[in-house]
Specification:
Elements: H1 2-15, E1 39-41, E2 45-52, E3 58-61, E4 64-79, E5 82-84, E6 87-90, E7 93-96, E8 98-100, E9 103-108, E10 112-115, E11 121-124, E12 131-139
Antiparallel strand pairs: 1-2, 2-12, 3-7, 4-9, 4-10, 4-11, 4-12, 5-8, 6-7
Length: about 140
């Protein structure tokens, strides 16, 4: 009798799919559901996937730390230093043309990077190359 109940339970549970619990999100194979260019915001963080085929602008996020997981490709990441031609683009966000005196690091698929709030950073992409990464922006107090 118990074996029959276990078998029936297994049959019914395999036929129905339970809804995800509140607060759980799955990005199959690292791709966000729906629009791959969308950003998904939560109470204290934002998730997105970014793809670059050319150099990015210098960025400074005064109120967010970035956690980056490189999925494909490679690039030079310049961090620290002084922003050249800095301009405020919105509250707490600064962009610039380049960085003077920063540290250059080659990053590639599989690397995990944390960039503190307030730290200048910029991706430099070699001609014909690309980089794709998952970005988690975390609000800092």
């Amino acid at each position: 009798m118990i074996a029959q109940l276990v078998l029936l339970s297994a049959m019914f549970s395999s036929q129905s799919v339970a809804a995800d619990p509140s607060g759980f999100v799955l990005w199959p194979k690292g791709a966000p559901p729906g629009d791959p260019n969308s950003k998904v915001s939560y109470a204290n963080h934002t998730l997105s996937v970014s793809h670059r085929e050319k150099d990015g602008l210098v960025e400074i996020h005064e109120k967010f730390a970035d956690v980056i997981v490189v999925q494909t490709g490679r690039a030079v990441l310049v961090v620290g230093g002084e922003v050249i031609e800095a301009a405020s683009t919105e509250s707490g966000e600064i962009r610039g043309k380049s960085i003077r005196g920063g540290v250059e690091r080659m990053v590639s698929a599989g690397d995990v990077i944390r960039i503190a709030a307030g730290m200048p950073h910029q991706f430099l992409i070699a001609a014909g190359k690309q980089i794709t990464y998952v970005l988690v922006k975390i609000a800092v107090p």
